[in-house]
């Protein structure tokens, strides 16, 4: 994960044009990794899926953070990233209580992979649709 995050700094891409496309692709790869872990009974395939998920997720977070930071002034970094971390922690807590906790749905591990894989599929769809719209609108001008 850290190696892929470091590689982002060395890749020469127009992030304004391709940033959302990259977010969509890596969200789709995360979804695929989670679905692999759900549908596989092989422990080694699950480990490979976990490693792929973690690397793609770290890269996804790095790209998303970069996309946000580009549009901020230096004085707003702490406020924005503090607020983002708070909201992310709040959403993660709610999702964990609903999906994992016995007071919520209390789902088994395999079903959790299915739920989270579906979540990443929706996220990937949103990013891919938005990136296709952005790219086509720029190319049509």
Automatic annotation (TrEMBL):
Q: Which residues cross the membrane?
A: 51-70, 77-100, 112-133
A cellular component annotation (GO) from this entry? plasma membrane
Determine if DNA damage is one of this entry's keywords: no
Q: What Pfam families does the entry give?
A: Folate_carrier
- Annotated coiled-coil positions are none
Return the InterPro entries for the record.
Folate_carrier
Identify the keywords attached in UniProt to this record, alphabetized: Membrane, Transmembrane, Transmembrane helix
Asked if the keyword Membrane belongs to this entry, the reply reads yes
The molecular function terms in GO held by this entry are: thiamine transmembrane transporter activity
Would you identify the family this protein belongs to, as annotated?
Belongs to the reduced folate carrier (RFC) transporter (TC 2.A.48) family.
Entry protein name: Thiamine transporter 2
Q: Which organism is it from?
A: Pterocles gutturalis
């Amino acid at each position: 994960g850290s190696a892929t995050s470091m590689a982002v700094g060395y890749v020469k891409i127009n992030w304004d044009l391709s940033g959302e496309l990259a977010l969509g692709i890596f969200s789709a790869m995360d979804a695929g990794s989670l679905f692999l872990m759900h549908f596989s009974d092989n422990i080694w395939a699950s480990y490979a899926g976990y490693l792929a998920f973690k690397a793609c997720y770290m890269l996804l977070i790095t790209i998303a953070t970069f996309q946000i930071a580009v549009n901020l002034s230096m004085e707003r970094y702490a406020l924005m990233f503090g607020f983002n971390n708070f909201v992310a922690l709040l959403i993660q807590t709610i999702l964990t209580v609903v999906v994992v906790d016995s007071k919520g749905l209390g789902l088994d591990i395999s079903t959790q992979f299915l739920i989270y894989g579906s979540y990443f599929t929706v996220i990937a769809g949103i990013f891919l649709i938005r990136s296709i719209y952005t790219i086509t609108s720029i190319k049509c001008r």
